Amino acid sequence: MRRKLWLLFIIIPSVSYGQKIETICKPEILNFTKQTYNAYHQNWGITQESQTRFMYFANSKGLIEYDGNHWEVYELPNKQKVRSAVAGIDGRIYTGGLGEFGYWQSDKTGKLTYHSLKALINDPSFAGEEIWNILPTSEGILFQSFAFIYLYQNNKITNLSPPGNIMFAYQVNGRVLLGVIDKGLYEFKHKSFSFIDNSSFLGKESVNTILPGRDQTIVIGTNRGIYLYDGNDFQPFNTTTNAFLLQNQLNRGVMLNDTTYAFGTILNGIVITNTQGEIIQHLNQKNGLQNNTILSLYKDADGNLWTGMDKGISLILINSPLRYYQDYDGHLGTVYDIALFEKKLYLGTNHGLFVSYLQSREADFQLVPKTQGQVWDLEVIDNQLLCGHNNGTFLIEGTQAKQISSVTGGWIIRKLKKHPDLLLQGTYTQLCIYKKNASFQWELAHTVSGFSAPVNQLEEDDFGYIWVNKVSKGLNRIKLSADTQKMDSIWSYETPELKSAAVNLCQINKRVIVTTNQQVLQFDPDHNVFEPATNLQKQLGPDKARKFFPINPSASFVLKTDGTLGFIEKDNSIKEIPMKKFQWFDDYENLVSIDNRTHLICLENGFGVLPENLITSLLSSTIQPPVIRSIVPLDFPTLGQTFRTDDNYPAFAFNYNQNSLIISFSTPHYGNEAKYSFWLENSSKGWSNFQTMDQKEFNNLAPGKYIFHLRSNLSKKETQLEFEILSPWYWNQWSISIYVLMLIGACIFSYWLHLQRVKAHQERVRRKLEKKLRKQEEESQKEIIQLRNQQLEQDVIRKSEELANSTMTLIKKNELLLQIKQEVLDIKTELGSKSNSSSFKEIIHLLESNISTDHDWQIFESNFNRVHEEFLQKLIHEYPTLTPSDLRLAAYLRMNLSTKEIAQLFNITYRSVELKRYRLRKKMNLDTDVNLGEFMMKYTNGN
Prior knowledge:
Blueprint: H1 2-10, H2 17-23, E1 26-27, E2 29-32, H3 34-37, E3 43-48, E4 55-59, E5 63-66, E6 71-74, E7 84-87, E8 93-97, E9 100-106, E10 112-116, E11 133-137, E12 140-144, E13 149-153, E14 156-160, E15 166-172, E16 175-180, E17 184-189, E18 192-195, E19 207-212, E20 218-222, E21 225-229, E22 234-236, H4 239-248, E23 250-255, E24 260-265, E25 270-274, E26 279-283, E27 294-299, E28 305-309, E29 313-316, E30 323-326, E31 335-341, E32 344-349, E33 353-357, E34 366-367, E35 375-381, E36 384-389, E37 392-397, E38 400-405, E39 412-415, E40 422-426, E41 431-436, E42 442-447, E43 455-460, E44 466-470, E45 474-480, E46 487-493, E47 504-508, E48 511-515, E49 520-524, E50 529-532, H5 534-540, E51 545-552, E52 555-560, E53 565-569, E54 575-576, E55 591-594, E56 598-603, E57 606-611, H6 612-620, E58 627-633, E59 641-642, E60 652-654, E61 661-666, E62 676-681, E63 695-698, E64 704-712, E65 718-725, H7 733-831, H8 837-850, H9 854-867, H10 871-878, H11 884-894, H12 899-906, H13 910-923, H14 932-938
Parallel strand pairs: 60-65
Antiparallel strand pairs: 1-30, 2-29, 3-4, 4-5, 5-6, 7-8, 8-9, 9-10, 11-12, 12-13, 13-14, 15-16, 16-17, 17-18, 19-20, 20-21, 21-22, 23-24, 24-25, 25-26, 27-28, 28-29, 30-57, 31-32, 32-33, 33-34, 35-36, 36-37, 37-38, 39-40, 40-41, 41-42, 43-44, 44-45, 45-46, 47-48, 48-49, 49-50, 51-52, 52-53, ...
Helix pairs in contact: 7-8, 7-9, 11-14, 12-13
InterPro entries: Ig-like_fold (IPR013783), Reg_prop (IPR011110), Sig_transdc_resp-reg_C-effctor (IPR016032), Tscrpt_reg_LuxR_C (IPR000792), WD40/YVTN_repeat-like_dom_sf (IPR015943), WH-like_DNA-bd_sf (IPR036388)
Coiled coil: 755-802
GO molecular function: DNA binding
């Protein structure tokens, strides 16, 4: 199928409008600020180590290393500015600064360490020289200041004497050339310098770059322009380009490929020219660079251009066929659709419809009158351009717009397969039918009756059914009547999943496909249901699709939920498109295919150009597998190991207490954003999902051997690293043997000890039984005595209660006798002289002799205390101010006697009893809410 696809492109004419669109676009620029690489603004030199493919930058803070994911800064011993950096074929990174030059090489831990070479120089003036240029040659490494050149070879330094103050030396076409101020161009060979004939005029100019040209010519760039040197004469490179470079001060240059050069200026960024000197592109701060002052240029192994500037680092993806047109001033707005029609490029945006002629390298987009506002859809149908607009639908003729429908919101319009003379359009409210008028121009014919819903996507399947995606309301399958005036039938698919705003409708390989938030579904016409599209999901792997963009029956682009774009051919796995700075507009993402060779991507601030040949290169390209950069114990960072390549990782062993590890990794391929999947054998169950994370932490690994598997989305090969977590010293092979012997000895000792314990146990049991029998006998005696004591105590209490009751009876008897005495006295008084005094006296005497005295109270108190556990003694101890009368009242209250009974006992009135109670309460400091009777009945010492 792939061969058929490319065969189709062969028959396309060689001049493509897609190529013309590319000329108005610029390569993607990736900017790295000083906050990103954690060093200073200025970057004086750039180089790449061939084996590791790591990038190195000569920065004012030190040497910067970049592996595609991680930045690291290495400073010189005296923290000088690094003015130059070059990677040698020996794997060393040579650098130079003020009074210093040497090389960096990895140590046994994988970190770069610096080896200074200045000790090999005996010239004291070297301390004031800055090494601005380093050039590897066949004779050795040249370290160059503006006054001296030092040749390093076989660990020896030779101080060369140039013919004067010099500019940079360059190696071109096997020759080493350099400009000498006030003299001209010289060639370095066999440790000597020879003058280049006819170059004396260059002594008045500053030679800032020397590059190879066509047919063994040499391109020489100075502060006044560029010259071509053919071995005899010097000719101006290009008048227009020279004027630009003269005005903006040429500073650096690099050959990108056989047909293009890049020249960096001090004042106005970078220009890219062809071999004739014509400016192809101009890149500066206005269109993507961080700064206009270019201090260094370097083409990496992938053919992309690195730029060191007075402020930051930029990577220009020259070798990527992807190009972008960015609307930096916000004139165009967000692009929703694109169309190429009659050699003009049309952009439908939220600001209106814009048009530009494809006649120059610079685009000049102008607004088409009457189209201000939201443009949704651009379609070229039967050589007519239709524009679906917020205000209706327009027919576009050149730079003029003619409204052919006032139905608002022309979202999508398609030609019907069953009715090729008609168009079907989805709008904000209804479905519209268009046909051609007498002038063969499309115009609105009618709307489909019986249908009213917003439709932003529609498809017609091979059975003639119309599929419509109603915004956030689900899907409908419609059968139109023969005259398309109405619907013959309609089927609704309105499950919660299909009613999501993220649902997208398309056709792939003649199957109706729907993407949702969770999965990809395909329609099964036999069962009238949507089912998982297993083949597509298998091609996607663990990724989830957001939207498909079919470009032919067997190939599609797919936008994934993470914002990346992939390409899928039938029965092939997905191939990711290397796009980093994608600015899709959510829910309205769009990719438009034009002239069968070029695909345009609608962005928030412009559009991108994706040529078809990119797909070819992606299918055939090979990118090296990811590199494991380091493995570091979490709590022991100094014991970590750093790696620089993926060749033959050694096996590592960590102590048992170093079982929490961080493994870092990278991919030194700088044009693509790498995502990683990993699996730790003997720990994880399987591969993880692809993620942009560049390190993985494993905690509390058990002792054992592990294999860390790593792969990226850019390479099919995986990288492996073996390591081991050692067992603790108390659980190794020797210790386990000792433990076994100790266990056997312990068992024997335990058996002997068991026998001894059995004997001792038997003896203890015998003694215990004897002691138990004696104890039981003693306890029986104690129990008998205790029972006797309890019985006696109960008898005492019972007798005390009886005595107390009898005493109370006696007291009441006394009270009765007192009453009788009083009655007798009253009778005597009434009788007066008539009474027999002697009889009355005898009666009174008899009564008085039978009335109890205080002795009765003492008996009562003694018995009362026996019954109530010395209640009165405890009460008078706590309240010493109580009188005997108070104590009697307290005793009566404890016996729960009523006021009437207490009054009789005291021979007083009820009121007097209440007065006594009040005085008793005051003496005991009781609150008024406390019931005095209840208090006495519950009273214990300290209550």
